[in-house]
Design a protein that fits this description.
The chain is α/β, with parallel strands linked by helices. The chain is built from 14 helices and 8 strands. Helix 2 packs parallel to helix 3 and helix 9 crosses helix 14.
Length: 389
Amino acid sequence: MIYIALTSIVLFYAVYMLLTIGIAWFYTSPDTTLSDSDHDVLVFFPMYKPGADAVMNLNRQKKELEHKNVKVLVLSQEADSAIDAELARIADYHKAESFSHLSGNSYHHALAYAVRHIETLGQSFDSVLLLDPDNFMDQYSLQRLIASRSAGHDVGLSRRKSYAKETSTSLFDGLSERLNDYMLRRSKAVMGFHPELSGSGMLLDTNLFRNAVLKLDKKAPGMDKQLLIHMMLMKDDLQISYDEDAVVLDEKTDQAASFNRQRLRWFGNQYYNAYHYGRKLLTSRDSSLVDYGISLWRPPRSFQIVASVLLTPFDLYAYWMGWIHAPVLAVSAVISVVAISLFLLKEDAFRMVVRQMLPMAGTALRNGWTALHGSGSASGSFIHTRADK
């Protein structure tokens, strides 16, 4: 019975993967009219232990988005005094704080501090653009997000695009992010559901951002899923736009250790929210909430694909011996391979993946263990990671 239940879940999410990737093929970027409006934007960089790279990126980003209606706020944590001085020189607003003495998720504490601090700046902002320290967004992309906000959307999401794919780890990370775009944003934009947040590169209504941040569960190990849950629960007519022509450059990690810490946080965040909020989402009358509840319970895709393929011979043998009524796992493996093939075909990434097949398969199997570890690890912490050079 346990085997049947588990393989049925794998089959359900294999079909889910195929459908969302197939639907994502029909996505088109929204028609946008750019204008030099008086939309005031606060670009917010939360930085944990920033270094020289963060200073260089901030300086570059500040010059790129230089405009009378755009200001930059940096909240640095546990930074060297010389780095803080440089950040303060570049940013319009700068605060240096530490939240390590507080219990719970330090990133949630930082965001709560920031949204309260924004109210003291003496200027009101229509939107907040949330960026990671290594992110870069050009003026055109910001203007597209502003146009989306001006059209009535509460949140404008950009596409996170990696700087480079040099190793099997960074390639896996970049393709995983792109697959998220297909399954969690492109397909949902087509179906009329809420595209899922990606953690950075998003322009949010200031009041909505503030109210949602102040409701974040300090025991939750991540941020983006918590933020989306509370925004959906707070606002019945929430409007989220996903625009692939608005791009934020994102540096992907090259090192397995940093990648594993990142996945530990992601899986811990996903399954914490699935466990604590899944029932409320799945029993809602709002189809977007139900869809998000289903999405939160999905198994790690890479592990699902590789494990189902590797276990297919056992599944077929069990079926041949009459131990099971149908080779469900084998069917799941075929569906998953077809789904990923459609994705790689669309992204013209077959050749890259074939060259890195074996190390990427190893990474996929490790993701299964990381998901179990992440879902069972202690809550109330935020695992900070940074890209390695």
